[in-house]
Amino acid sequence: MIEGDPPQPMPYREVPETVQFDPAKLAAWVEAAVGVALRKKKR
Taking the complete model, does pTM exceed 0.70, yes or no? Predict the structure, then answer.
């Protein structure tokens, strides 16, 4: 960030409550989230 540039919000999503207590659903959710982050980084 260059001095004087306005701060940019950090985009994030909360883990859905329906996923938090199910290890299989949580693993799938995390894998999908990482995939999105990696694809966005390549742009």
Answer: no
What does the pLDDT profile of the chain (43 residues) look like in tens digits? 567 788 777 777 889 999 999 999 999 999 998 998 888 766 6
Contacts of 29 (CB under 8 A, 6+ apart): 15, 16, 19
Complete DSSP assignment for 1-43 = --TTSPP-PPP--PPPHHHHT-HHHHHHHHHHHHHHHHHHHH-
Please state, in angstroms and rounded to a whole number, the distance separating the CA atoms of residues 5 and 38.
25
